[in-house]
UniProtKB/TrEMBL annotation:
It comes from [Candida] subhashii. Belongs to the eukaryotic GSH synthase family. Its cofactor is Mg(2+). Pathway: Sulfur metabolism; glutathione biosynthesis; glutathione from L-cysteine and L-glutamate: step 2/2. This is Glutathione synthetase. Keywords: ATP-binding, Glutathione biosynthesis, Ligase, Magnesium, Metal-binding, Nucleotide-binding.
Length: 488
């Protein structure tokens, strides 16, 4: 199929489109708080004016591998735990203040040989870029904690459909520009809420108990709170399940436990699922570390189902991602996978190297200095803004003690196609080349102790785009925006 060009609108038509778009965003919660906000005023989230083209087949492949990826990671956590723990112990040496501390909590709560709550919930997101020449999807990273934008993704799909059906994409105002199936809407709000409801259901011995609640652990002054709120609204509306929001610092004073069950102190509502939308980065524990780390410990010791459990969170480390690109390891973790599925999964990997003193590490050290323009260097961090790109790699490594290089991985850069879409941020429209990253959500409920899987599902998708001139794509950080797919 050939690709439709982006709609061509006159300046007047574009300004009418922008007005409607802004009204839709504010009317439907496609919003974010600005920096230094007061509670009563939000802005339109940074988004694209039009959906961005994506080959139908590439999208399908990304959807098809999601459940296999979900299973790969939870099998690692539940069935090859000893191996994972050995690797995490190594990692902790490089990163004692964060990975090390999380790992210490894991050891403390399992000191009697068991996790307090074997049931475990994963709400994951696997991120890809499309390789320019082959249209193959190539994985950027697999996220196991605090995956965001499932809320706003549904909204941006609805917005683009609204603009299309209202005729704003048609220069004659009379026709739809895209056919219905060309711009699908991600059902991630409801699917992620369904994941949390699954957690609540299994916590209550497979019954639909509406008296237990979900605790959202959030960052203070969260500018992206509406993304999370949409999931909370769906959880209440579709499942009758209430939710609470507390920061790590508030946990100590606002929750209580009784026989290891976790309760919200003010109401004595019992918490079935602790959903972390904070706690994935050292920054989250920087302010008042004693209290925030103790809060984490309180939650981990409790019987509430954690989304994710500490081991599941740590299985998303960049170092583990590097190890999981090896075929023999994937085969071991997925003993019953079909050859076809294995091939699909393996085809999403680009080369990722360790930078330690193994043979492979030595090759990578050479590559990093000889052809840095082909690579991105990643530390063990989540949340954007931490990577070192291309020509900056050699001088960065030179400044480090060589014994610390092992904490990094070296990843081949993916070269996606670029498009001339338009981005709106606040009131300003930018007309630049953009590149996009597709995220596919998954939800999985499993038993961490014996590896049994109760639910394993796809949970919608997200397209994020950024100026092709920028290396990183953080939306809240101001580098990127939320987009939607136009399938061709
Ligand atoms: P984080 O945990 O900080 O989100 P990522 O691995 O997702 O780290 O990297 C952040 C961003 O850097 C990605 O969203 C993407 O824009 C860019 N990036 C990362 N790896 C690659 C790669 N291999 N090729 C091209 N861009 C990449
Ligand atoms: Mg990322």
């Amino acid at each position: 199929m050939s690709i439709k060009e982006f709609p061509e609108l006159s300046a007047e038509q574009e300004s009418e489109l922008v007005e409607s778009l802004l009204h839709w965003c504010l009317g439907n919660g496609l919003v974010m708080y600005p920096p230094n906000f007061s509670n009563c005023s939000a802005n339109n989230a940074p988004i694209t004016l039009f959906p961005t083209p994506m080959p139908r087949n590439s999208f399908k492949n990304a959807e098809d591998v999601q459940k296999i990826f979900n299973e790969l990671y939870i099998n690692l956590v539940s069935k090859e735990r000893e191996w994972l723990i050995k690797e995490l112990r190594e990692l902790s040496k490089y990163d004692s203040d964060f990975t090390g501390k999380l790992f210490e909590i894991y050891e403390e709560v399992t000191s009697n040989g068991q996790v307090p709550q074997p049931l475990s919930l994963g709400l994951f997101r696997s991120d890809y870029m499309i390789h320019n020449e082959t249209n193959e999807i190539k994985q950027i990273e697999f996220n196991t904690v605090s995956v965001s934008f499932g809320g706003l993704s549904t909204k941006v799909g609805e917005l683009h459909n609204y603009l299309n059906s209202s005729g704003f994409y048609d220069s004659k105002y009379s026709n739809v520009y895209y056919e219905g199936q060309e711009i699908p809407i991600s059902n991630s709000i409801n699917e992620l809420a369904q994941g949390l409801a699954d957690g609540n259901y299994f916590y209550n011995n497979q019954s639909e108990n509406k008296d237990t609640v979900v605790l959202f652990v959030v960052q203070p002054q969260e500018r992206n709170c509406f993304d999370q709120r949409h999931i909370e609204f769906s959880l209440l509306k579709n499942h009758g399940i209430k939710s609470y929001r507390l920061t790590l610092e508030e946990i100590e004073s606002k929750v209580t436990t009784n026989s290891n069950k976790l309760y919200i102190k003010s109401t004595m509502d019992e918490v079935s699922v602790v959903y972390y939308r904070a706690g994935y980065s050292p920054d989250d524990y920087e302010h008042n570390p004693q209290s925030t780390w103790n809060s984490r410990l309180i939650l981990e010791k409790s019987l509430a189902i954690k989304c994710p459990s500490i081991l599941t969170q740590l299985s998303g480390a960049k170092k583990i991602q590097q190890l999981l690109t090896k075929k023999e390891i994937v085969e071991k973790l997925l003993p019953t996978v079909s050859q076809e599925d294995l091939k699909k999964l393996m085809s999403t990997f680009v080369s990722i190297y360790p930078l330690d003193d193994s043979e492979e590490g030595k090759i990578a050290q050479k590559l990093a200095f000889e052809v840095p323009e082909r690579f991105v260097l990643k530390p063990q961090r989540e949340g954007g803004g931490n990577n070192i790109y291309k020509e900056e790699i050699p001088s960065f490594l030179e400044k480090l003690d060589k014994s610390d290089w092992g904490a990094y991985i070296l990843m081949e850069l993916i070269n996606p196609p670029s498009y001339k879409n338009k981005i709106i941020r606040n009131n300003e429209v930018y007309n630049e080349n953009i590149i996009s990253e597709l995220g596919v959500f998954g939800s999985i409920l499993f038993n961490e102790a014996n590896g049994e899987i109760y639910t394993n599902k796809n949970a919608g998708w997200l397209l994020r785009s950024k100026f092709s001139s920028s290396n990183e794509g953080g939306v809240a950080a101001g580098f990127g925006c939320v987009d939607n797919i136009y399938l061709y």
